[in-house]
Amino acid sequence: MEERNLDLGIPLTREQWEQVARRAADLGREERGFAWDEGESEQIRLYLHEEEARGIWSDYVSAEETYGAADREVAQLVFNGGSPYARIEAPPSAQPPVVTQQEAQGMQLGLERWVREKWQNLMRESGLHYDRGHAPYD
Predict the structure, then answer these.
(1) pTM, whole model, 2 decimals?
(2) pLDDT tens, position by position, for the chain (138 residues)?
(3) Are 99 and 107 in contact (CB under 8 A)?
(4) So what's the pLDDT on residue 20?
(5) Angstrom distance (rounded) from CA 50 to CA 61
(6) Residues 6+ apart with CB under 8 A from 10
(7) In terms of DSSP bridges, do strands 34-35 and 43-49 run parallel, antiparallel, or are they unpaired?
(8) In the chain, where the domains are located
(9) Cα separation of 7 and 99, whole Å?
(10) Phi, psi of 34 (to 5 degrees)
(11) For 72, phi and psi rounded to 5 degrees?
């Protein structure tokens, strides 16, 4: 699984980004998997929780009382001057030979879908809307 940048396809003004970022902070890491700090205002961190982990990702996130992490930072949403993108980071152990090439590709696609879904939900939660089909991945 490779680290990569994922174009989110929806341009935002600085004010819109701040609206989205503040909503992310309100939703929180524990409850919804978002973390934002005014000191690092250009990015919103995304955390994958056990209940959202699908497929092989469930091996990387587990309940607090069991072995493993209760959540795992897997991406950051970056403002990028109004052209937001997601910086996706795989855990170092999600590489061959620990996982097969096919598993790594499945993890990559699953994570990209999840990140896009989280972004769209955050936009809605922030009161910002876009027309379906506008974004290249709809």
Answers:
(1) 0.83
(2) 677 899 998 899 999 999 999 999 999 998 999 999 999 999 999 998 878 877 777 666 765 556 666 788 899 999 999 999 999 987 776 767 778 888 888 888 889 999 999 999 999 999 987 655 554 444
(3) yes
(4) 97
(5) 5
(6) 84, 119, 123, 130, 134, 135
(7) antiparallel
(8) 4-125
(9) 26
(10) -115, 140
(11) -140, 130
- Tens of pLDDT, residue by residue over 95-107, are 677 788 888 888 8
Task: State the Cα–Cα distance between residues 50 and 77, nearest whole angstrom.
Answer: 20
Question: Which residue in 78, 77, 79, 76 sits closest to 13, CA to CA?
Answer: 79
Distances (CA, A) of 119 to 15, 48, 78, 124, 131: 17, 13, 11, 9, 14
Triad 24, 7, 88: Cα angle to 5°: 65
The number of CA neighbours under 13 Å toward the Cβ of 25 is: 14
